[in-house]
Amino acid sequence: MIGRLHRPGATPVHRLPPQCKIVATVAFVLAVVATPRERLWAFGAYALMLAAVAAAARVPAGFVARRMTVEVPFVAFALLIPFVAHGPRVEVLGVALSESGLWAAANILAKASLGAAAMILLAATTEPRVLLLGVERLRVPPLLTQIAGFMLRYLDVVVGELRRMRVARAARAFEPRDLRDARVLGRAAGALFLRSYERGERVHLAMLSRGYEGRMPAADEAPATAGQWTAAALLPAAAALVAAGAWLVG
Amino acid sequence: MHVPDGFFDAPVSIGAGVVAAAGIGVALRGARAELDDRTAPLAGLTAAFVFAAQMINFPVAAGTSGHLMGGALAAILVGPYTGLLCVSVVLLVQMFFADGGVTAYGINVTLMAVTGVLVAYGVFRLVTKVLPANRPAVTGASFLAAAVSVPASALVFVVLYAIGGTADIPLGTLTTAMLGVHVLIGLGEGLITAVTVGSVAAVRPDLVYGLRGTVRRPLEVRTAQPSGA
Q1: Fewest CB atoms less than 10 Å from the CB: which of A197, B113, B189, B214?
Q2: Domain B10-211 has CATH 1.10.1760.20
Q3: Inter-chain contact A200–B85, Cβ cutoff 8 Å?
């Protein structure tokens, strides 16, 4: 399931080292978050920048839009803010809404969507495994990325077991109706934990038999060149200019 | 539902990031001390389990459904250190899915991993200390631990919001709404956590971290005796 995030390709965006892309994404999102909320033009400029990256990486807009649906619960929350926030009211279609609440909702929607779109582009152009390698090269403790690596590696196996359990329950005409059925679901979760944990024990034994000594074999370390860093810096540099402009000009 | 970018201002995001980094650092050290070189595979598989368990939907009321969050479950099953790591890693991978913002990762870890796991484990330990060490007590303690940890995370969210939220929502309204909803979610979480822990404790009590020291007969490995010896 994690594989669906990635769109294989050989564009310049795909080929950049992962650590450069991660730093660029984080720096871009920081610039977006730091922008004053009244400067709507700045958010439009950020969206254009992401569109340019998507075009360079040949990621279709529909792909990004479909992945953005993960945001929907938060959008609902943001839409509630104008109704409950403080401050002077403005009439919108005959409903009195808080002016500061409207700004806050627009602010959250714009920044959250831009952040999500940037992340989706990063994940679409970088394999999950390579993404973790990039995280590790940025001096995140290797144990943490190892745990994440094992999680990614076995996610489809564990989710597959969960799906087979659901099919088995459905084949016996079980359908959760109310909270009392939590008993059945809880037992299934318990069984799933046992299977996952015991699989972890077997994986560890298999690793020991292959000479594991607490460290994963190091991947070939090819540090990013100055040129690659410069290419990756294009996006956050442009965003930083816009953010600075938004603060100064207004 | 995770906090996206732009929801909290920069100082709170950075402060929560520091808290999250410290929590993960302590948990890394603790987990390595407990599990040694088994940490990566065991915590990784448990993280995959937590991710999968969050996909279990259960009906709540009137056609709405909730899903397990799993912080309390992980804390009781594999302990506070490994549990915190598992939830943090799940949040990291969910960030790849654009669920939760990059700049809000510290906040999400502070809310769900640090607060959720620590409160759940604290409550669990307290209750099991008071009650006799048997299966019903463990089930009850699991229920309480999960039921308390969910509104506790919501309360920390409100506190962070009071310090650095970007919208001008009256705090009273926010507190009431957040607590009201999350007390309900906590009941469902508590129920399913209790059954899950109970069913694991029935089969492999030695695997339930929260039962360490209370299991009278540890699981033993019997090897087959060669016949005629």
Answers
A1: B214
A2: yes
A3: no
The pLDDT tens digits of the residues spanning A31-60 come to 998 888 888 889 999 999 999 999 999 999
CA distance A54 to B213: 55
CB of A16 within 8 A of CB of A231? Answer: yes
CA distance A110 to A114: 6
Give pLDDT, residue B229.
Answer: 46
Of all residues in chain A, the one with the smallest CA distance to B36 is A214
Can you list the positions of beta strands (E) in chain B?
57-61, 64-67
Which of B7, B14, B49 should we substitute to test contact with A (largest number of A Cβ atoms within 10 Å)? Answer: B49
Domain ranges for chain A, please list them. Answer: 2-135+223-248, 141-209
**pLDDT tens by residue, A186-199:** 889 999 999 999 99
Confidence of residue A8 (pLDDT cuts 50, 70, 90): confident
Q: Count the Cβ atoms, other than its own, within 10 Å of residue B166.
A: 19
Of A107, A128, A213, the CB nearest to B6: A107
Query: What residues in A contact B146, CB-CB < 8 Å?
Result: none
Q: Which long-range contacts (CB under 8 A, 24 or more apart) does A196-199 make?
A: A196/A154, A196/A158, A196/A161, A196/B45, A196/B46, A196/B48, A196/B49, A196/B52, A197/B42, A197/B45, A197/B46, A197/B49, A197/B77, A197/B78, A197/B207, A199/A154, A199/A157, A199/A158, A199/B45
Q: What is the ipTM of this complex?
A: 0.88
* β-strands B57-61, A95-98 pairing: unpaired
Every domain of chain B and the residues it spans: 10-211
- For the ranges A47-56, A152-161, B14-23, B36-45, the lowest mean pLDDT is seen at B36-45
Burial code (b: 16+ CB inside 10 Å, e: under 16) for A212-233 equals beeeeeeeeeeebeeebbebbe
Interface size, chain A vs chain B, as Cβ–Cβ contacts under 8 Å: 272
Assess contact for B153 and B118: CB atoms under 8 A.
no
Is B171's Cβ below 8 Å from some Cβ in A? no
